[in-house]
Amino acid sequence: xxxxxxxxxxWISLVTPFADGAVDHPALARLVQRLRGTGxxxxxxxxxxxxxASLDEAEQQAVLDTVLVxxxxxxxxxxxxxxxxxxxxxxxxxxxxxxxxxxxxxxxxYIRPSQSGLLRWFTDLADASQVPLIxxxxxxxxxxxxxxxxxxxxxxxxxxRAIKDCGGDAAKTAALVASGALQVLTGExxxxxxxLAQGGAGAISASAHGHTQRFVKVMQAIAEGDLPxxxxxxxxxxxxxxxxxxxxxxxxxxxxxxxxxxxQAELRAPMTxxxxxxxxxxxxLDQNLPPV
Length: 292
Known about the structure:
Blueprint: E1 9-13, E2 18-19, E3 22-23, H1 25-36, E4 42-45, H2 57-71, E5 76-80, H3 85-96, E6 102-106, H4 115-128, E7 133-137, H5 139-142, H6 148-154, E8 160-165, H7 170-179, E9 183-186, H8 192-197, E10 202-205, H9 212-223, H10 227-234, H11 237-244, H12 251-259, H13 276-288
Parallel strand pairs: 1-4, 1-10, 4-5, 5-6, 6-7, 7-8, 8-9, 9-10
Antiparallel strand pairs: 2-3
Helix pairs in contact: 1-2, 3-4, 4-6, 9-10, 11-13, 12-13
């Protein structure tokens, strides 16, 4: 396994299972093994869905180790975030020396730097990395908005290859896709179809823990230019995706996975488990989805 030049396809933004307060590594390994053969491009460990902010550095490394072994050669991207630049540079150097395909990195939260500050932040991180970076543009978590011009300038860096787009700006998304400067991977599952139909490269998805092959088939149908078939596959997924984000992520997907005996529903405070009513709703939606 080594760094990638192509991040296209469907990536699963993995949950981190817990049991009695500790990371449940056997459940994590089983989850990765279960998803490995579904046609996905790879896995993202320690993203926001993975509750990385609640894991200490040793736990994050242990999660990565488990995912790398269980993935059996399928690419793994590691999420890194923070706001202390020297610590982030050290983390980038250490993590990029491991057999990861790339790093998913955010703007520094809370600080809200200028565009020139964001340019410097991502450039410094890319300079320190041995593997490509995927910029995670998620202003509602970081408080920092990356302008289109800043992203296009960052795209000139040889190790900045892709963006996980949660920016909430449809015009910026369309312009990024049209530019061809970065591979655009949607991080908003409800935008999966529209981003791909415009020519986006793929998705980093939380809700695709479930009905994974349907997501893959939507992507394949769009790539083949069969939009009617893609819509037929996609539209039944919309209530499922809405349900996954009806309460804070990753509570719903963990509750759904727990219903099927794949892990405990446990989250770390201040996150809370999904309501039983929502989990029941998700299970009912499973039963109503037509087969692929």
